[in-house]
Amino acid sequence: MGEQRRQALAAALERRFGNAADLAAAAPHQALPTLAGLAAHRVIRGYADRPVPDALIDLVCAAALSVPSKSDLQQRDLIVVTAPDTRARLTELCGNDPWMPSAPVWLVVCGNHRRQRQLHDWRGHGFANDHLDAFFNATVDAALALAWAVAAAEAAGLGCCPISQIRNHPEAVAALLTLPAHVFPVAGLTLGWPAHPGTLSPRLELAATVHRERFDDGAARSQVAAYDARRAALQPYRRQRDIGRFGTAPVYGWSEEKARHYAEPQRTGFGAYIRSIGFRLD
């Protein structure tokens, strides 16, 4: 079993990064199940018609909230959404992707700076950090909880998909979930029993994103070009984005897709929303 898991880890690393299979040899035996599971992560967009027990949802939440927290401030909360009408509204606000209604559970991962401010009110101490770092700390805490929720869900056999579109209409999401001032949505996370195995998406090679001692992107262009070619071979895009504006590219890789993606404004009102709920971003 141990050798099979090491081989599975090596295969996942090879597909993910292209040249990292040999790293599996460095994995301690006891860590193989965890490392193989993390390396083989797959986003699941499509769920079986099967409920997820409440106790299992709570267990995933408990594991997610066991993640390290900046200075033990615990500035992240999870909102579990299972009511069909609320899930339907979240689906609408997040772009109405056709697979979303199949998810029996949504988690909405929130940054929560309200609780910290309540502590100051309750203890009678002035709050002296009303600047960007307050927002940033809560955001990082929420992002860490999201990552551990994904890991916990997959360890339990569930599939999941993070949903950044939850920030497309933050005011509407806040109204739907009754979020007070200083509490804001960071991401959604659909949960359910997988209806299909999903796809293990390739990533940039480790040399492009893991730096030793100091940052160095001197080879970035060639590394991205190599990734474009590898990804096109393993997981080509089914269609090109906004052909009417950009035309049809003879070679359509990750770099072209992402450059087209962010050639359009994205969530330009999010900063105004964050300020409207009480954050200063100085």
Structure explained in plain terms:
This protein is α+β, with helices and mostly antiparallel strands. It folds into 3 domains: 2-39, no CATH class; 54-198 and 268-276, NADH Oxidase; 206-261, no CATH class. The protein is built from 12 helices and 4 strands; from the N terminus they run H-H-H-E-H-E-H-H-E-H-E-H-H-H-H-H. It has helices at 2-17, 32-39, 54-64, 84-93, 114-123, 132-155, 170-176, 206-209, 220-234, 243-246, 254-261, 270-276, and strands spanning 76-81, 105-112, 159-163, 183-192. The chain has a 4-stranded antiparallel beta sheet. The longest helix is centred in the middle third of the chain and has 24 residues, at 132-155.
Topology:
Elements: H1 2-17, H2 32-39, H3 54-64, E1 76-81, H4 84-93, E2 105-112, H5 114-123, H6 132-155, E3 159-163, H7 170-176, E4 183-192, H8 206-209, H9 220-234, H10 243-246, H11 254-261, H12 270-276
Antiparallel strand pairs: 1-2, 2-4, 3-4
Tally the structural domains.
3
- Under CATH, the homologous superfamily of the largest domain reads NADH Oxidase
How big a fraction of the residues is strand? 5-15%
Order of helices and strands: HHHEHEHHEHEHHHHH
For the secondary structure, the number of strands is 4
- What is the CATH level 1 assignment of the largest domain? Alpha Beta
Average residue pLDDT: 97
CATH fold-level label of the largest domain = NADH Oxidase
Sheet with most strands: strand arrangement? 1-2-4-3
Question: What is the molecular shape?
Answer: globular
